[in-house]
Amino acid sequence: MGKRYDTLLFPGGLKKAFTISYDDGAKQDIRLLALCDKYRIKGTFNLNYGDLGQRPERKYAVEIIRKEDVSELYKNQEIGGHGLYHSDLSTIGEPLAIYEIIEDKRNLEKIAEKPLRMFAYPYGTFNDDAKKILKAAGYKGARTVRSTHGFNLPEDTFELDPSCHHNDPELFKLAEEFVNSQDRRPQLFYVWGHSYEFDRDDNWDVIEEFLYYMDEHRDEIWFAGNGEILAYLEAYKRLEYSADGSMIYNPSALDVEIATSLTAKELLKSGQVTRIKETVL
Ligand SMILES: [Zn+2]
User: Fold this and answer.
1) Strand order in the sheet with 7-9
2) Following CA atoms 238, 239, 242, 243 in sequence, which dihedral angle do they give, to the nearest 10 degrees?
3) Which of 147, 92, 152 is nearest to 122 (CA)?
């Protein structure tokens, strides 16, 4: 085979993916979820099972969604873990970190009716033990609060750094940069926050304008939950290549799309060997 440019493409042969991640399950999620439905946005909502229906004493006292409302409210979105009582995993020690992570996951999964894939670190803090426990518990990734102001795919999914928070002064600049990017590499735009901040900061108009903008440019973007994106990246990593690149086996349960040259795309069907045609650039 001649020179190749194999690169991951997202489903639909797209180079870009967009996702959001919102923490704590405050009642303001109801308004945000309605905006997500309106603008067909997908994301992950990270919940503290032990805080559901409560008004936990934290930095901002907010009312949390009730247990019995979770499954209906978040039905179009992904549910992620955020620790049973939102404890700081970097300080509580391993036994309690295990309890926080497992009890939250076990109970939320009963509501979600599927295994949870994604976690968000409470306060954004973590250490190697926390990462190890999350992996052992079956999570596929965990989000930090470190803004990259970029769109690179994560190297370590257990230190998944978002592009920015919704209050970032560069939010719209980044959105424009993302939409207009002609980069050959796959790009992920990842925005996070807390829905109660929109009440606190009186800026619901900002998030609505932002989601409207992303929806307007959906032709070239895959809109997906955090866990959906991680599952896809995992399927891509599992591809098995023949020595000369002419055959690729996709052992996963997901179809995977790749670019093999600047112009040629291939759909690698789940469970099949695909023969790649020689392309002339
Ligand atoms: Zn939180």
Assistant:
1) 7-9, 256-259, 265-268
2) -60
3) 92
pLDDT digits (tens, 9 = 90+) for 102-123: 999 999 999 999 999 999 999 9
Residue 166 Cα to ligand 1 middle (Å): 15
**If you measure from the C-alpha of residue 254 to the centroid of ligand 1, how many angstroms do you get, rounded to a whole number?**
31
The domains located in the chain, with CATH, are 15-232 (3.20.20.370)
- pLDDT tens for residues 157-188? 999 999 999 999 999 999 999 999 999 899 99
Show the tokens assigned to 236.
């891509």
> In angstroms, what is the span from residue 130 Cα to ligand 1's centroid?
16
Q: How far is the CA of 83 from the centre of ligand 1 (A)?
A: 9
Ligand 1 centroid from CA 216, angstroms: 30
Interval between CA 174 and ligand 1 midpoint (Å) = 24
Confidence of residue 281 (pLDDT cuts 50, 70, 90): low
Reported pTM: 0.96
Cα(123) to ligand 1 centroid in Å equals 6
